[in-house]
């Protein structure tokens, strides 16, 4: 069984929000869904629907702080609590690829699913009055008119640091599964048993272990081409001997 | 959560409607089995059912304001296998319909005896119809309560106390209305209504206090650490991905001061329990019909505040991602 998902590398995310804007662009001008509302976009209090938002947290106490940029969208849970509560069947999880979707033509905008998602991943569109959430760009990942390498969610393609990986987390050899396995990928709020398909890769501390001997070895071959200190004017120079 | 007035009115109105019907049916059972003498006037039943219909209708009307697309509301009955909301959408009209049939039988006095047992007790048609409606009324309390109790990560709601409170408070407001109705018709059954109204109000008071106590001591399962997957004592939010707020900041926060929320709590405890009980006891002892009516009205106002508090108190784990609001 396939379960498509995103893996987000918090170690390299720089919080640029390119994924946010490309998501909004694709899903507003693309074919499906009828867009996401944008109210007051250039005014004082801009607000609107987003499938994906990047939030920033500061961990620790000054001066020992770390900034964590934290992109969050629907995690396409394997046991999604938002689906069974929907009275209309508008919310559903696809069998073939595990994507959780909302049928905008069936949704009555009762908001019950948004209460039942512990991650706050669903937003009611203020204009269309139906529930909206990340679709994993279901309208482009299967689009055969696109070249193979472009058949990925818009956010993944936009990310300048490659902090977003996309693939099948049920295939143990996929890039996402390997990244999860090798780099400690984890799920959000595992305590509720929702089994989010999206995973996060933790931040890592890199320490280079360089000892003094390695740098100042007598026979260090690197020293052969070392730059010599500038010649001082007090010492005799080559000119003194030649002329 | 941000309390929505549509849902506050829906739950309090239909709760009272179900309670009123159950009160009327209780008196019919009492009459049939001769527990209290003197049959109640059947036009009292008809008037009572009219009030029940009014309450259910108003509740249904209010609920439409909660929907983004009310014109598609009919779809909401489809997923009854998994969704308590869908179950409520089915049981609500079923109960209303059964109650209407029961009232109509009484209005037209069409009530053939179905069986007579050896002790000479007659089982009439309305008794059976009423029994079905009474079951549906309890089922509706269960559905309404479970809509909230089934959301397991809203820990204030995820307890059987939610269902118990919805049931007891609905019963208490319904029997209060019935007491008023009985007083209006000067019926001997009023005593029964008053007695049950007091019992349910006091039981409701007890279970609501237990719920308040429980909710004050909740140990949160989700913390900012599990929400982000970052283990540290000190995590502070710097930006929340929206400048002018979002659905997440509007739907899940009540935006009121803690003092205001506390004031609502004190207000509803006084108005739902203390004042109505006092009024009913005085009104009953001095056969003052107006005090019974006043108790019902005061309690309804209290219940509006109670429901507001019920929503405002609920803390959704998604709020951890929106700490800057
Ligand atoms: S993240 Fe929320 S909306 Fe997405 S599948 Fe999980 S519970 Fe449903
Ligand atoms: S808002 Fe729409 S998708 Fe969500 S539970 Fe209601 S009908 Fe289903």
Write the layout of secondary structure elements.
The complex is a heterodimer of chains A (243) and B (325).
Chain A: E1 4-9, H1 18-29, E2 38-39, E3 47-48, E4 52-61, E5 64-73, E6 91-93, E7 100-102, H2 112-115, E8 123-124, E9 131-132, H3 154-158, E10 164-168, H4 175-182, E11 199-201, H5 212-215, H6 238-242
Parallel strand pairs in A: 1-11
Antiparallel strand pairs in A: 1-10, 2-3, 4-5, 6-7, 8-9
Chain B: H1 5-32, H2 42-64, H3 84-107, E1 113-116, E2 122-124, H4 125-149, H5 160-184, H6 190-216, H7 224-228, E3 235-239, H8 247-251, H9 258-285, H10 289-313
Antiparallel strand pairs in B: 1-2
Can you characterise this structure?
The complex is a heterodimer of chains A (243) and B (325). In chain A, 16% of the residues lie in helices and 20% in strands. Chain A is of the alpha+beta class and 243 residues long. Chain A is elongated, with a radius of gyration of 26 Å. The N and C termini of chain A lie far apart (86 Å). The model of chain A has no long low-confidence stretch (mean pLDDT 90). Chain B is 66% helix and 4% strand. A two-stranded antiparallel sheet of chain B has the order 1-2. In chain B, strand 1 and strand 2 (122-124) form a beta hairpin. In chain B, helix 1 packs across helix 10 and helix 2 (42-64) runs antiparallel to helix 3 (84-107). The longest helix of chain B is centred in the N-terminal third of the chain and has 28 residues, at 5-32. Chains A and B meet through strand 3, strand 4, strand 5, helix 2 and strand 8 of A and helix 3, helix 7, strand 3 and helix 8 of B. Strand 4 of chain A pairs antiparallel with strand 3 (235-239) of chain B, so a sheet runs across the interface. Residues 74-77, 80-82, 100, 117, 119, 121-122, 133, 194, 196 of chain A line the site of one iron/sulfur cluster.
């Amino acid at each position: 069984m396939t379960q498509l998902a995103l893996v987000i590398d918090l170690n390299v995310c720089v919080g640029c929000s390119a994924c946010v804007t490309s998501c909004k662009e694709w899903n507003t001008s693309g074919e499906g869904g009828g867009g996401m509302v944008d109210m007051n976009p250039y005014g004082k209090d801009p607000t609107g629907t987003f499938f994906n938002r990047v939030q920033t947290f500061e961990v620790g106490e000054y001066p020992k702080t770390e900034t964590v940029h934290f992109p969050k969208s629907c995690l396409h849970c394997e046991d999604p609590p938002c689906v069974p509560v929907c009275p209309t069947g508008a919310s559903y999880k696809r069998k073939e690829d595990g994507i959780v979707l909302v049928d905008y033509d069936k949704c009555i905008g009762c908001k019950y699913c948004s209460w039942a998602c512990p991650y706050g991943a669903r937003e009611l569109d203020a204009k269309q009055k139906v529930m909206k959430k990340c679709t994993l760009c279901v309208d482009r990942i299967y689009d055969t008119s696109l070249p193979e390498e472009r058949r990925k969610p818009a956010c993944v393609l936009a990310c300048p640091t490659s902090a977003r990986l996309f693939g099948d987390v049920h295939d143990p050899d996929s890039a996402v599964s390997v990244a999860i396995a090798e780099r400690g990928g984890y799920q959000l709020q595992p305590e509720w048993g929702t089994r989010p398909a999206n995973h996060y890769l933790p931040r890592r501390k890199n320490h280079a272990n360089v000892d003094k001997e390695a740098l100042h070895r007598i026979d260090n071959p690197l020293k052969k081409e070392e730059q010599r200190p500038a010649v001082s004017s007090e010492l005799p120079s080559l000119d003194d001997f030649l002329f | 959560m941000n309390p929505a007035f549509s849902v506050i009115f829906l739950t309090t109105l239909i709760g009272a409607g179900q309670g009123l019907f159950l009160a009327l049916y209780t008196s019919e059972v009492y009459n049939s089995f001769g527990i209290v003498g003197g049959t109640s006037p059947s036009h009292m039943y008809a008037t009572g059912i009219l009030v029940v219909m009014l309450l259910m209708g108003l509740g249904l009307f209010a609920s439409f304001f909660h929907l983004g697309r009310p014109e598609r509301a009919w779809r909401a009955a489809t997923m009854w296998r998994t969704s308590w909301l869908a179950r409520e959408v089915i049981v609500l009209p079923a109960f209303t319909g059964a109650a209407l049939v029961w009232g109509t039988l009484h209005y037209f006095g069409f009530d053939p005896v179905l069986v007579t047992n050896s002790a000479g007790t007659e089982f009439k048609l309305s008794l059976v119809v009423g029994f079905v409606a009474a079951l549906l009324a309890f089922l509706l309390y269960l559905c309404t309560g479970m809509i909230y109790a089934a959301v397991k990560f809203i820990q204030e709601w995820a307890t059987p106390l939610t269902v118990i409170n919805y049931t007891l408070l609905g019963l208490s407001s319904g029997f209060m209305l019935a007491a008023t109705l009985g007083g209006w018709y000067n019926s001997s059954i009023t005593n029964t209504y008053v007695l049950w109204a007091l019992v349910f109000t006091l039981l409701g008071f007890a279970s609501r206090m237990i719920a308040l106590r429980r909710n004050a001591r909740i140990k949160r399962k989700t913390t900012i650490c599990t929400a982000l997957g970052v283990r540290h004592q000190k995590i502070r939010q710097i930006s929340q991905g929206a400048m002018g707020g979002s659905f997440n900041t509007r739907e899940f926060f009540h935006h009121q001061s803690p003092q205001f929320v506390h004031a609502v709590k004190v207000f509803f405890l006084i108005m739902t329990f203390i004042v109505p009980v006092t009024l009913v006891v005085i009104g009953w002892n001095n056969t003052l019909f107006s005090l019974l009516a006043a108790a019902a009205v005061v309690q309804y106002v209290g219940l509006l505040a109670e429901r507001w508090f019920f929503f405002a108190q609920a803390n959704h784990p998604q709020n951890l991602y929106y700490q800057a609001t």
